[in-house]
Amino acid sequence: MRYVEIIDTASAGFLMSGTFKGLTQAHIDRRLKDGRGQGQGSHYKPFIYTRDVSSLGRSHRLPGSKTRRLHHLLSDLELAIFLTLDRSPHVTDIREQFPMRVEDTVRIAEELGLPHGRYKGTPQVLTSDFLVDFEDPQRPSIAIQAKYSTDLQKPEVIERLELERRYWQEKGIPWAIVTEREVSKVAFANIQWLYPAHAEDDIAQDDLAHYQQLFLLEFQRHPDRKLTAIAQGLDTSGQLEAGQALYWLRQLLARHCFLFDLDTPYRELKPKDLVANSHQMHQELSSVAR
Fold first, then answer.
1. DSSP letters for 27-80
2. For labeling, which of 14, 165, 174, 279 is most exposed (least CB within 10 Å)?
3. How far apart are CA 207 and CA 246, in angstroms?
4. By CB neighbour count within 10 A (0-12 exposed, 13-18 middle, 19+ buried), where does 186 fall?
5. Taking the chain (290 residues) in consecutive chunks of 10 residues, what is each chunk's mean pLDDT?
6. Are 129 and 16 in contact (CB under 8 A)?
């Protein structure tokens, strides 16, 4: 069973579905001067913003619960991976649209006899979709690129990926590709449902503790009922206002106070599918109190 606290982010991958015309040297210098591709945590600025590309798919801008900043994601696949990373307790930082040093990529391309992207004669800054930091000192970082499986049949894509692989190999940082085949649709739907609650940072400590106890009592009374039915029952019984029980249930699940298998649709969850996480509850209450 794959509980939410042990998501294997090493299998994550990313896709850039948008088109990017190119940058002159003056544009590149301006971005670097503005801090693009630099910093960590809340101070990081992606090298590419959603407004910089003409997307063939859907781009997304949304806050990260770990970084407390707005993340720029250029496709639905990037969104799926980001939500997984942002939810993993093992991830400490997520830097999207991370630039590789152009001096190094040009040199590697020449060594391998591969083409290097240029715009009006200017070598382009190549980016990895994500550079992810972990709390594990044995695996401090990983670079990730995502591609749809059909794109992996294209020679120009294969050449570009080999260039990226060699770049990160030189840096001593693991690199991974993931296609849409590695993204669980059920897990993605669960994360999409949980994410808005997980991103909130103004939850009162007393409220979170109160509703955890309330739901624990209800779970003991109705171990075989679906969680959504239990929440609806609390609303209709008059104990809570309409929609309030489901709101707090989502808060508790989003904050890892109860663990569950992400490959089980949240609408099908029952109390017996949950594992209480008292240690995480203590951490959540401590962070809320600060």
1. HHHHHHHTTBTB--GGG-B-SS-GGGSEESS--EEEE-TTT-SEEEE-SHHHHH
2. 279
3. 14
4. middle
5. 30 39 93 97 96 72 89 88 88 97 98 95 96 89 92 94 97 93 87 80 83 93 95 86 91 88 93 79 43
6. yes
